[in-house]
Amino acid sequence: MSLSDIRVALRSYLLADNSIAAIVGTRIYPVKLPQGTTLTSVVYTRISGLSGVTSSGRERLSRPRIQIDCWSQQVDDAATLADLVKERIDGLRGAIQWDDNSPGNAVTVQGVFMDMEREDYDDAAKLHRVSRDYIVWFEE
Fold first, then answer.
1. What CATH number does the domain located at 3-139 have?
2. pLDDT of amino acid 51
3. Is the pLDDT of residue 96 over 70?
4. Given phi > 0 = left and psi -120 to 50 = alpha, else beta, which region is 88?
5. Every domain of the chain and the residues it spans
6. What's this model's pTM, rounded to 2 decimal places?
């Protein structure tokens, strides 16, 4: 299991939530917001990560920090979306499957925990951002 799989799994898991999908449609993007996007959207980025080593070798448990940014023209809309994302994934445990449910399209999450949050405004894009970092423990 690679780190890109956890990102795909989280995107799929967020889109499976009717409240989130009603707001963003499919506008959940990796790494950066596409230029010219003005509709309410989500961007997810792996900003750091750790894998452990024990006396018996490398752990099969990875724990990246995933930053999830909720963008909108209205600050309240960005905050509402960020709260829906938090409600959906904070404390998440279990298997997440995506696509055709084949065994290679799943990841087992041991826990997701919100770590930090911040808000800002992008003058160039004219969008508000609510940004939260999550520590994601999953089995590689």
1. 3.30.2000.10
2. 67
3. yes
4. alpha
5. 3-139
6. 0.89
